[in-house]
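Internal QA ticket QA-208
Title: Verify multi-chain structure generation after dependency bump
Assignee: T.L.

Test input:
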Amino acid sequence: MTLSLLLVLLTASALTLHVARYWRPLGFAASVAATILLVWAVQNTSATTFDLFGMSFGLQPLARDYLLAAMALSGMLAIATSFGDVRRTLGFLFWSWIVWLVALAVNDFVIGVFAWASGLAVIVIAMEPRHGQRTGGAAYYLVLIIVAAALLLIGHRFVQLYPLTPDQVALVDSAILFLAWGLGLLLAIVPFIVWLGPMADETPLPVIAVLVGLGQPIGLWLLYGLIGQYPRLLEQSNLLAIMTLGGIGSVIVGGALCALERRAGRLMSYAALFALGFILLDLSRGTLEGTAFAVIETFARAVSLGLMAASISIVYAVRNRWVSALALLVFVLGALNLAGLTPGISLVTRWNILLELEATDRRIFFLVMLATVGVLIGMARYVLLWFEAFTPTEPAENGLAPSPPPTTLVGRIRFRVRAQLVSWSEKLARRVPPPVERARRGAAENWRAFFAALLLLALGAFVLWYNVTPNIWLQRALETVGQLEFMR
Amino acid sequence: MPSLDDLARLFAAFSYYQLELGLLIAVAVVVVVADWRISLLALSSQYILVAILLSTLIPLQIAAVRMIAGGLVALMFYITARRMYPGRRRRRAQAEPQTRQEPSRGIFWINLPFRLIGLALAALSVIAASEQFVLLNAPLLFWVTGLWLATGGLLTIAMTRDALRLGMGLLFFTSGFGIIYLSIDNSLVIYALLVIADLVIALAISHIASVPAQFVGFGTNPRKRRGEL
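Actual output:
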């Protein structure tokens, strides 16, 4: 399959989901179909490159693996969203991927930055401002996207201009300053984290998972693509030291903020910041193993956020005792995976960094451990709140109150047509044998609980399997990272 | 019907000083004046003046694309603003009571005298920065103009609490950035992407400004914050 065909499939899937969201069963079916189709399409996408307008487009193995995980997670979040009463954001879980695919495939930093920023701007449309007409987290996030993209472009231009003054490193220093500033803003690396909370307040949870878990790492991909083109960025600057400082700061501040938080969106965002710190620390080692660990951490972070967002979305949508218990279990698994405490590969990657910190600076090691405790406290508080909020209750009888016919002409026509359809279906139902009718009603009432439980079971099983098969993931990460240009 | 030659003659009639003065006034209007109609007029005139300025760097036909994009952006903002701020007649006609209404607040966080002081400080910082720093290949005129528009845009963003005004500030910022970037890298790809970015920004801002408020994330308790159980 070619890249252009994948782009067409992505667009078609996003459009279908956007339209199908109005009717819940259709939204669910479309989400499942889109997920299967896109995962299959990405798996079969060829690695051949093609040129367009002087730029080269092609999916490297690591980008393809990332896209595969992204499609699976976005699809899973779409399925979880389709169970709910509010499904406005269903299409937005895929819209951004149309331009993010370009960002992952193009070999040009400028186009990549524009594509990345456009995808983030599209996500802003999925946000829900708390105050009508007023500026809030969504509006300020849009401002940040534009300002940060501008900083990245200026940084890139400075790197390009450096050969004009080869005896001075002022241009490289300025480039690093602007690149660090731009990426720091968009990735919310400490100290640029102010926007994270207000943005989370105005964003639905599945969208937060896509934005923070899957959208943010594309910035790191672009940075490493640029380093591959201009190795002097690493050789003649202190970029790795900046990453180390940003990583340590993000871990500590993320952990501290988690301990104080009780809102789901903010909790997820701050926990993601905590995990991002470890990704930066892995990258700052500048070795093949370090980068492979960073890739695994990025994947684990996205999976954990997806699990948390899906479980909370499902528990709000499906009021069922068993589903609620299962969702809580999946939430805890996701939280532990994000904190790096699930036995398996997340523990291995995290432990690696901790051992290194323990050997180099024991004070930082203790601070990082405290931050991990902070994340656990935040998650534990949320779980306790969960127990209080979702005590099993019997669903109330939902008697349909007679509603007056609408006043508009179109409304009246729609009202009449619907009434006619209902009367026909009732007449038909009277002819159906009672056992069949009971089974039909049961399926109509419980299909969401059934499929939600199935999805949660699949997610939980995947995390457990993923954690107990560390060798597969580490080997794959080492293989794909080794093929990157900057590593060569 | 006017041709491109007529447009070129019209553009040539403007001197650099007139363009600078026009952009100075446009930024000042968006920062100082609260009325959305006047600000929208300033935004539209900014697009025309920047297109005239850019026509000295890039071909006229391409510079005119920015004017067309500016027209589309202004149209989007006009439609949004008409929905957000209905006229007196429409306000009277809207008799239906709303379940929950936010208290009406001013467009800006601070009063007029402070906005004027802020504008003066921004102007001073632009003059100081343009004397202190020089970008490679960038003519002083473009450097100062770009800085002025970008600083004015950021000032507007910092001082407003209105989503539409924030969008105007953002578009002033992108115009300023576009002038600076095009003066150091005369790339048509960047120019085209900046024009597209303006349209995406206008779309997102129109959405943010017109979407109804979400007072609570879940549940029925209005005191709850979003995401709280």
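Spot checks passed. Chain A is about 75% helix and 0% strand.
Status: verified.
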